[in-house]
Amino acid sequence: MIKVAINGACGRMGSRLVSLVSEAADLELAAALERQDRPEIGQDIGELAGVGKLGLPLEADLTRDVDVMVDFSTPDATMQRLARSLEKKISMVIGTTGLSTEQLAQINEAAETIPILISPNMSVGVNVLFAVAAEVAKALSEDFDIEIVELHHRFKKDAPSGTALKVAQNIAAALGKNLDECAVYGRKGIVGERPKGEIAVHAIRGGDIVGEHHIIFSTLGERVELVHRAHTRDAFARGALRAARFIVGKPAGKYEFCDMLGNVG
Q1: Would you say residue 167 lies in a domain?
Q2: What is the DSSP string of 35-70?
Q3: What is the pLDDT of residues 146-199, one digit of tens each?
Q4: Nearest residue to 88 via CA among 113, 112, 70
Q5: Within this chain, do residues 164 and 249 fall inside the same structural domain, yes or no?
Q6: What is the pLDDT of residues 77-88, one digit of tens each?
Q7: Which of 3, 88, 156, 202 is catalytic?
């Protein structure tokens, strides 16, 4: 039985993780965590998640023995849990987006001591898309203009999405480019004719859109599109739990979702 701690347990993703862990035969929900100022601290996490009493209180600090920490929270909260996981030698699955370059460097350093699987998107389909988009870009080469459009709910705090950035990074690498030198994030005003070699990323926010990504390769006379739509957050939650099962017992190191999927990516 794998003992799982969920950070951000009252969030949209956290609640689904609580529900799915409580249903899994091989997983035990051993800790549910949130920030100290949440008024729900001390309440039963099962009741908070709408799955019935589980006998486990929502807590602000990890005091229990667990095998893996699954974190979908905020960058600052993730770094706090990272420090605790290092202290207790706990494996981590990180799905938090919006992490800074400095924070990512700290995660890389921590991965020298504990196993960490990090991905901006935990759905199996999107992680296959990461690889496919790069291969398509390589095959179509510079003759096709590349536009990435991502759509998410109104509550999402970071833009563009971590998934869109990962797609752009993979495409840039496949084309031998530095994304920092060729990326465009939205357009406004008299921007002139589209230059060759741009990789453009656009963010749309509205309502309760779970997550949608369009990768458009367009040239004179034809267009190729790759699209991924998440119907529910369970796509991400199930992928994260698959990652939790994978990472427990692994040697220290930084892992990506594609490491779980064999040759994909």
Answers
A1: yes
A2: -TT-TTTTSBHHHHHTS---S-BEESS--S--SEEE
A3: 999 999 999 999 999 999 999 999 999 999 999 999 999 999 999 999 999 999
A4: 113
A5: no
A6: 999 999 999 999
A7: 156
Instruction: Say whether both 29 and 52 belong to one domain.
Output: yes
CA angle (240, 136, 120) in 5-degree steps: 20
Q: Are residues 136 and 225 in the same domain?
A: yes
Residue 16 lies in a domain: yes
Place of tokens 């990472």: 247
Q: Based on the residue annotation, tell me whether 3 is a catalytic residue of this protein.
A: no
Known catalytic residue: 213? Answer: no
Domain count along the chain: 2
The SS3 assignment for 158 reads coil
Domain membership flag for residue 264: no
- Do 57 and 166 lie in one domain? The reply is no
Digit-coded pLDDT (tens) for 217-245: 999 999 999 999 999 989 999 999 999 99
Marked catalytic residue, from 152, 177, 228, 254: 152
- Spell out the alpha helix ranges (H) of 54-178: 75-88, 101-110, 124-140, 162-174
Residue 233 CA, distance from chain mean position: 12
**Do 141 and 177 contact (CB within 8 A), yes or no?**
no
Q: Residue type for 136, please?
A: V
Structural domain harbouring 173: 124-229
Looking at the structure, do residues 116 and 188 belong to the same domain, yes or no? no
CA angle 202, 208, 212 (to 5 degrees): 40
Same domain for 114 and 146: no
For residues 17 and 90, membership in a common domain is answered with: yes
